[in-house]
Protein 1
Amino acid sequence: MANDLIHVTGLAKTFESGDQTVSVLSGLDLSLAGGQSLALTGPSGSGKSTLLNILCGLERPDSGHLHVAGQTLAGEGAPVNKALEQAWAGLRRQCIGVVFQDANLMPALSLLDNIRLRASLAGNAGDSGQQWLSKLGIGELGERYPDQVSGGQRQRAALAMVFAVRPALILADEPTGSLDRVTAEAVADELFGLQARQGCGLILATHDPELAARCQFQLDLGHRGGA
């Protein structure tokens, strides 16, 4: 565990659905070191997005132990209440880059300003963001606002925002789901290229078997009894 970027044991999460309790994750064990990549697979509802949300602190597990970047975030020894929120906020600001399905961009800022703000919060204020947009094929769109570009272009801008953070860990929820095949392959090349150059950890949720096959490891949550 000493060298793990993420170490999870016995993780469980349930949700209430009407008068039923639905188990989404149960007894999950997971470890990932820097430089390693893991694909989360399985049908919709199997817990892929839930697990990613737990790993970045947006949801809390019901039980189990969770350690991220040397910090205990769930289980014995974890901080509570405000201290826990502060710990997660610090990790998301400087250590974890998250790519959501809906491209989490601020609508009042241009694509470039979204990237610059995120980079600045991570301590990389000198990053203009332009290089990342160019690498992802939308370098000419930097001054446009999120509602002035397509969904696929917003997704690429969200990836550029994560790249500018230079995170130790990238969590990506269907990062190429809204892209055509050619663009998806180019974006995947940049994603895995960044991981190789920086030695960061990568966990992605995907329904795309070709994208999953590019990861070193795969975890099929659909075969673990998830909902």
Note: The two ends are 29 Å apart (CA to CA).
Protein 2
Amino acid sequence: MRVCWRKIPSQRNSMACLSAACERAGYRLEFVNGPEEDITLYSLNSITGPSFIPEIRDADVITVVGGPHACARWKELVRIADYVVVGEGEFTVPRLLDSLHTNGPPPPGVATISSYTPIDHTVFLDGNPSFGEYKGYIEISRGCPFGCTYCQTPRIFGNRIRHRSIHSIGKLAQSFHDIRFLSPNALAYGTDGIHPDLRSIHSLLRELSRIPDKDIFLGTFPGEIRPEFVSEEAVDLIARYCSNTRIHIGAQSGAESTLQKICRGHTLSDVWKAIDHCTDGGFTPVIDIIVGFPDETDEELLETVSFCQEVARIGYVHAHRFFPLPGTPLQGRVSRDLIPEVVSALGSLALSGRLTGSWNNPEIRFFSKISK
């Protein structure tokens, strides 16, 4: 039985993780640029994923669809795909391939046009090597206890954060020159995700620093940091063990009222304290923001622009336009129009080299991150 993986650049980490999981189960994936026999697997995110729907619908092979978009829209996707994986795929996908090989029924966690049984497990990160020959970032944590209204993470992976062990991370790190982490909040490693505690991250960095000829990057894309976890002690740890000169902080808005509406769980004061800790420690802050939330007022937009202008004097801003992700409280909502003053101000910051991202086209995201 030939099993193929549809190459989609934005799904690099899913490709690495699931190809390793399938290989352990005896299925070696072939990477393809379109549907091919016997089975083609797709991982779709909610921004670029819909563009692949015509291809999946017209494919004359067995199609298996998973990823964030599939988790939120499985009832729609079962009409065009043969199988839809709902939830984490490391165990579900190999079990599905086994059932296809033996002509058995699909396992829990797989939806079809005629049936669906919810997933019956939670993935233990240490049980998955994260990658094989095809590499992604090292995933150190999964899940998020916060409920930001625009974010899919807690809706897919749960609101209890899980962590890979230091031993497992150390083994995976041997395969890299630059060690970079995938995490919803890198400084939350080893914690409940709500209360900062640096003991585990200190132990992890100390252990990784013993591996010769490795550059460690913590607090950079794709493992940015929540502002309330940034402290003087945390910055000192990054300075002691890591090679990055910039620290990415997820602020998401420069308006206090917007932070409350999107349920960020931190204040604007927390953001400025984090920025101060970074600059005091010799790091350049890179601040993520989102503009165009559906209920964002003109005043709130101008507050965010003013915030960006202040940040740009000492660091960088990465901005993108709100996009309504399926499965979130803001699904189905529309990004509000940006007033001319906002477009002009953000454009000026971009021309100065202090702002990256796309605040007009919500489909362009994560491709211009400043990573060092």
Note: Residues 3-111 form a domain with the Rossmann fold fold (CATH 3.40.50).
